[in-house]
Every structure is written in structure tokens, then in C-alpha cells.
Amino acid sequence: MASATPVDDEATLIGQLRAGDEAAVEQVVRACGGRLLAVARRIVGSEEDARDVVQDAFMSAFRSLDRCEGHAKLSTWLHRARQALRTLLARHFGSAAS
Description:
Layout: H1 10-18, H2 22-44, H3 47-64, H4 74-93
Helix pairs in contact: 2-3, 2-4, 3-4
């Protein structure tokens, strides 16, 4: 059984994300999801709501990946994921999320 090897090269990872590679998506979610979830939990107080908001933020960020410049860094894209999270939290839970 072959195991997925984490991708070290950002350009390769971004290309895989754009292509919809599930292993690349999982790698990014595992690497960054915990931090986003911690922020969401503090604001919404409910584990279920926090998970929903983080999932929506990732979906929004993944959709925006096509608009990223070819030379953009993954950190720039992850900043968009954090911005999407803040926007969703503010929209659903008021100014405490800002």
C-alpha cells in the first residue's frame, strides 16, 4: 500500500490544490485547520458551529485559489482562508468575531 508523501514544494502543492487533489487538500486542512478551529471555538463557543464555520472558510479559500497569482505563496492563500473565517464569523456571530 502506497502512502501519500507530504509535498514540500509550495508551487507543486498549489498546483495540486488547483487540480482538486484530495491528498493536497487534506495536507493543508491538517496543517492549518487546528489553528482556524481554535479561533472559531473561542468566538462561537460551540464545537459544531466552529467546525461548520471553518469548513465554510476553507471552501471559500479553495474556491479563491484559482484567482491566486501563479507566483503567490501558500502563506498568502492561507491568509485568505483566515480572512474568510473572520468574515464568516462576523456575519454569523456579530462584531465579537472581528
